[in-house]
Amino acid sequence: MTLNCGVRDRSTRNRFDMHAARLFVVLILVSAGAVNADEGVDSEEATLLENTARAILEKHCVDCHGNDESNGGLRLDTADSLNAVGDSGKQAIVPGDLEASELLVRVLSKDENTRMPPDGDRLADEEIESLREWIGQGAPWTGDPRAARQLDPRTRHWAFQPIANPDVPRRIDAWSSHPVDRFLEAARADAGKTVVEDASPRVMIRRLFYDLIGLPPSTDDVVAFEANWKASGPDHAITQIVDQLLARNEYGERWGRHWMDWVRYADTAGDNSDYPIPQAYLYRNYIIDSLNSDAPYDRFLIEQLAGDLMPAKNEPERVRQTIATGYLAMARRFGSLIERYPWHLTIEDTIDNVGKTMLGMTLACARCHDHKFDPVSTREYYGLYGFFASTRYPFPGIELFKAQNHFASLLPEEQTKAHLAKFADKTSDLQRQLTEILALCELKAQDNARQSASASVDDQRRMRSELDGMLIKARNKGETLAKHLQSIPEYPTAYAVSDANAIDASIQIKGEPTRPGAVVPRQFPDVLGGQKLPATAEGSGRLELANWVASKDNPLTARVIVNRVWAKYLGRGIVPSTTDFGLRGQTPTHPQLLDWLATDFIAHGWSLKHLHRTLLTSRTYRLSSNDNVDPENIHLTHQRRKRLDAESIRDTMLFLSGELDTTPMNETHPFPPRKEWKFTQHHPFKDAYDSRRRSVYLMTKRLTADQYFQTFDGPDRNVCTQTRDQSITALQALYFVNNEFLHDSAQALANRLPKSLPDEAKLQWLMQHLLQRSATPMEQAWLLEHLTSARQNVSEQQAWASLARSLFRLNEFLYID
């Protein structure tokens, strides 16, 4: 008998060959009855069995089930993990019990989906027999040469360490006393870098207006700011204008749009028919109002994850907190059938967005297997999954269930009961019947999946037929319920979540819900604290989860948001990969500054407005964008030039033309009556509603993107958009030549020109409004020449509109210096 134990050292291999020979003798004695297996073997023989088994596991198993990877929640290299239950819910090794030991079952399996090892590297018969003997004798395992309890090196990654509170570096010179600048100056000094000159007051006010409210300053704003700058100095002028802008409603609209990018806000559901959600605007307005009121960021997160479970002082607060969970409801919907509706995909989308937006982690990678790079296991993923599997998501309607269901009432409880009283019994009964038959369908699907590998073709056909029959019954029951729900008079509701039956989720083997594995208790990932839901907890546990996410002890949450805000102002994050702080993400360029900002942010009550003030009053933010020395700008020697985003371009043209409606939108879009909705997979919802309000209030769809936002790199409404592209395409140039909206805006701007002024004064008026500066003598000559040429072919107003369109195309108009 020869065992290839995968040991390269010759002397060690010789010892294993000796052990193998002695084991062969033991096996013969056992089979002949000379040794009673029930009585076990002596210590020397136990060591022999153990060493041989270890060599086999090392050769065939440990690459996938060891310290680096523990696929299936299973490790086969340590004493304390051998008897653990894997993700499948079964114990790999049950000492003394061959039939219950899943390791042997998988090794012997002929099913390609379950057999191990999976890559064709089958165990030899002698190796299988050795494992049988080892397990039969109690699977002895002494010592732990692989140091199992040693800390996973991935957990030592910088992002998973507690937030430090570094001292602000001493002032190197008198350039700036601002804490942010002192961190950056220390790094610049080490790298031998120097900064450029400060930006001019005109550049600064334009930069501040667009960064904070997404609109240009008026001519009066520019004049007042320049006078304040000259009289009181730049520090005072900037601080004053920042406070003024933060107090404006447009601040919440601008920064609310950023948050909407990250949480993939849309006014439709994303299913095959892309059903509209008229109530979605309530969550959008919640975001804007929260930012304008400077709601503490930690509470902002908690409300969105579990606002419905938080205590409320009064009815308006209850309504607000309920609407806040629109964040969870906003998870994308899939499919078009009520039977076998893929709720698992909606939950997976939820976890993915919580990870990227709030934690800066790619949690979705652990859905089918342990995360390949970060210390998050499949078991921990489904520990999170349980919180949302215990949550009832609202149902927006689909092709074969044309009704809203489980939306949250915004009426007081007694009024809700009174409104629904005569419908309640039938609704409850139909809901119960549908839930029961859907549960039976799910169990049948899982049973079919378990039996299909060993079933005959005829049996497989029979099982599918039985399941199809049950699914048809579920569809019919769903259509009955939908018709009943349509008959209920409409009342105020929110696209929000509530608690469902609290459950711990089963691991889905390879991400397949029809292959349930071990049940996992709800918990936070170990690397972030590993808090487990107390046994006494009631409900879904989302409130506990929300508090863990927003805890000051969580090493990620504060770092992630200060980094995102930094990236918006400085053009690139201190951690450039803003949604991935894990091992595959990019390392921070200034880690001490990042931690100082996070610490300062928490110390000031998680105030986003305080964070804005801190960054915007730094001298680094004030630098000009003129630099050729540090192109990547790693050391922040200058400011990055940024193109206006799609919303700012549109809003600016409306603002300049005098047609921008600045009133907040506190009503839904003009969707057709719900009883008329007949959207299908082949004829999804595609309506569009024009508006003169700010772009943040435009109705947005998931399946059919608006052409304008596609042209100017708008966000993907289906996923977390961490950073928008800044492409330069021919379509953008053609837009500024041919688009009807642009022509109308230019004409409206031309109509605003003071008619009593001479051409030179009109031209300066136009330049001040578009570019916040006067035209140079050379520019004035060129523009007047264009005007003269245009007058030969079109009317006076059209000639000025042509001139306005030319100015709209300038880089100076489209980019912020």
Question: Can you characterise this structure?
Answer:
Helix content is 48%, strand content 2%. It contains 30 helices and 8 strands. The longest helix has 40 residues, at 413-452. Strands 1-4 form a two-stranded antiparallel ribbon. Strands 2-3 form a two-stranded antiparallel sheet. The termini are far apart. By secondary structure, it is an all-alpha fold. β5 and β6 (516-519) form a beta hairpin.
Topology summary:
Elements: H1 10-32, H2 43-60, H3 102-108, H4 125-136, H5 179-191, H6 201-213, H7 219-232, H8 234-246, H9 249-262, H10 280-292, H11 297-306, H12 315-324, H13 326-329, H14 343-359, H15 378-389, E1 391-392, E2 408-409, H16 413-452, H17 457-486, E3 493-494, E4 498-499, E5 506-508, E6 516-519, H18 542-549, H19 557-570, H20 591-603, H21 608-616, H22 619-622, E7 642-643, H23 646-657, H24 707-711, H25 730-738, H26 740-751, H27 759-771, H28 777-791, H29 796-808, H30 811-814, E8 815-816
Antiparallel strand pairs: 1-4, 2-3, 5-6, 7-8
